[in-house]
Write a structure and sequence with these properties.
By secondary structure, the protein is of the alpha/beta class. The protein folds into two domains: 50-90 and 165-230, Alpha/Beta hydrolase fold, catalytic domain (Rossmann fold, 3-Layer(aba) Sandwich), CATH 3.40.50.1820; 91-162. The chain is 48% helix and 10% strand. It has twelve helices and four strands. It has helices at residues 2-5, 31-49, 62-73, 93-109, 113-123, 126-131, 133-140, 148-160, 166-171, 189-197, 214-217, 219-231; strands at residues 55-60, 78-84, 176-181, 202-207. A four-stranded parallel beta sheet has the order 1-2-3-4, sandwiched between helices. α10 (189-197) links the parallel β3 and β4. The chain is globular.
Amino acid sequence: MDDLRQKRTLVLVDGWSFGASADLDRVVDKFNDRCVQGAAAVVSQVQNELVAGPVDWLGSAWGGHVGLQLAAVRPELVRSLITVSTPVQPASPSMRRQVRMLLPVYRAIGMRGPVRQGLLDGMLTDLTRRTDPEAVDALVAPMSRANRGAIARIVHSGILTRTDLAWAAARVRCPTLMIATDDRGEWSPAQCAQTTAAMRDARSAVLTGSRALPSLECPTELAALVTDFWAGPRSRREPPAGRRIGPLEATDPG
């Protein structure tokens, strides 16, 4: 994070049911559409309180889906786009089956037993699970909150109703970097490269030794890719100095 702060003024956005954002009170069918509406409101707040003009969107997984569609439908808001471990296609049938099986268990017992193991297996490599307790805690702790229903609704909305975003990728015109990992079966380096090859101004990169969360498993290497992309002539912008933004307001999903 410190490396990124040296290059840009960062505004961190919590999704619904996480951090200071409002809980999601129901399952949302067109989830990414609603998220994009909320993201547009956040960008407007940033423009009003921090600096005018489009933003450089950096999104991991869920945040990448939001940024991809935002750049497609509101191009005036996004100067450049980076997605990290963000599959463009819907969740696979096997993932959907696993989520449907584990959600009722999670509601009943929380982040324990098969639920905890399924989350760790899906998100972190074997090596990280064995040797990096801080990464494990950073993943598990936000899912261990008291309001399990709100988290379950987010998981249902974000995975089971996730739709194909190939149309959005095809419409993006801003400089784009899509980062894949070498150990996430549903979004391989080859799939990522194929997607960017069909886009107007995009390239792909691969991080090794990570599954779904390179921000936890290889943060230094991830930061290097991000700052190198930002330093390129197509996305260069001097960061505003000495300005801060207040807390972002939670946005109603519906």
